Amino acid sequence: MPNLDRIERALHAALQAIDGPGRPPRLAGAMQHAVFPSGARIRPQLVLAVAHACGEDDPALTDAAAVAIELLHCASLVHDDLPCFDDAATRRGRPSVQKAWGERLAVLAGDALIVAAYEALGRAAGRHVSRLPGLLATVSRGVGMPLGIVAGQAWECEPQVTLRDYQQAKTGALFAAATMAGAQSAGSTPEPWRGLGERLGQAYQVADDIRDVVGDAQALGKPVHRDIELDRPSMTRELGLDGALAEFRRLMDETEAAVPDCPGAAGFRALIRHEARRLVPTGLEDIRPRTPEAAWRVQAA
Amino acid sequence: MPNLDRIERALHAALQAIDGPGRPPRLAGAMQHAVFPSGARIRPQLVLAVAHACGEDDPALTDAAAVAIELLHCASLVHDDLPCFDDAATRRGRPSVQKAWGERLAVLAGDALIVAAYEALGRAAGRHVSRLPGLLATVSRGVGMPLGIVAGQAWECEPQVTLRDYQQAKTGALFAAATMAGAQSAGSTPEPWRGLGERLGQAYQVADDIRDVVGDAQALGKPVHRDIELDRPSMTRELGLDGALAEFRRLMDETEAAVPDCPGAAGFRALIRHEARRLVPTGLEDIRPRTPEAAWRVQAA
What we know:
Two copies of one chain form a homodimer.
Chain A: H1 2-17, H2 25-35, H3 42-53, H4 59-80, E1 90-91, E2 94-95, H5 97-101, H6 103-124, H7 132-143, H8 149-154, H9 163-185, H10 194-214, H11 217-220, H12 226-229, H13 235-257, H14 265-279, H15 292-300
Antiparallel strand pairs in A: 1-2
Helix pairs in contact in A: 1-4, 2-6, 3-4, 3-9, 4-6, 4-9, 7-9, 9-10, 10-13, 13-14, 13-15
Family (chains A, B): Belongs to the FPP/GGPP synthase family.
Pfam family, one (chains A, B): polyprenyl_synt
GO molecular function, one term (chains A, B): metal ion binding
């Protein structure tokens, strides 16, 4: 996977660029822990794939867009795992940042990763500085108010929420930002890529809900059944497992159909199909939930 | 104070720009609470004052620089007040964000304010986009790793820290960013303004330490004696009250002497003298600490 190597190199370089004498070593450690070793890196892969499909002409800027999106994703995971939210002890198959480094460094590592994301964009914009305002707007809309992933997380603090709005903000927004930033980093118009990113993000979230119910913690790298334990809205709770699987397939079909006409369209569609198989393996329909509570919730939905 | 009106208008506009249908209303409320009503707004006033001294030519970009610095400052206060850090119940004379809106919304409001700061910069860069990368670098260095205010807060999680390094990062870094960003927003070279900002930030931090010992909570708008309760490094603990007062006067003199040669130098020096009087009123030397513990710590230092 040459793209994965490229992403890891760019992420290492981004953290290296903000290392230096006088930094607090434990915060540096917590930030490294939050970013490495690799998660699936689906969002930065999306950035690279869209930039490639659009005729990438500034690899440093595309790398920076991919880095920014991934660092913001890592920051959101670190803060989602805090005791006041999920209180997650594990993430990506090992201790979460808050478990390994403590709550205070988890708060600060998330903050510093948000800053590092923007710093990476600014540092790489030398050749095409005119693309920078659009990239800042895209990334900020994907993360902040009113509809970004931070807003999505905040819906957990509201008395009422529509499941689709919640999941669109919590996941879809950063996927849309990834596809749009990929296009912008290559000098293309971002809007045609928004819908594709949103649908893919929705599909990814449904897949996550499904794996929360049927998955095992080892394969997922994080605890399962958390949606039910935390009384969080979830597609499997709303539609049942079979309904959620059908919704996932529908969204992936729509994503594939939404690829704009461009030189790299065929390769891009292949990536989407690969992701569909990876996220929800064929045959998952035969796996039933393992705990009576989960089964009840799913059957009753 | 026309500058204060201008800053309040710009801050309102920045939060208005990211308001919109579909936003989680409680997060929007927590963000408003974090930014309004006004604190001293010393950092954005610095941005405006330096830009003016440098021959400001793009008020929208200067406003955005001031907004970015102040939103990042507000974000840092919200996160510093979290239960895992200061666990502060009050701030600016009323309930802290974590007290009024809960810990989860305090985490998210801080995150969203960081994003909003960068978004404001990107939105305003249309006329002088070539100034944007430098502004992003300045702001990011003032906040993030290795020496920004988040790094400064992280020194509270290290077993050992030099007081000066801690205070330089915790406060001086964002003051330096304020002066440098003011210059950059006006198209000027930022470096001549760095030392001034750093010294002013150090002076401000020493003043804060002094007021933590001798002040009363009502005048400060936040609890006093927190440095001692939280066993935090502090200039009054290191030098004693009289030593800290002497250090404050020395730093303010150095700040005044560091004003670069520019058309607005005289007005700028007047602002610094005004701040010196506001931060540590003359006659404070006669006020002794109120609690036996604080008195002991100060005398023993």
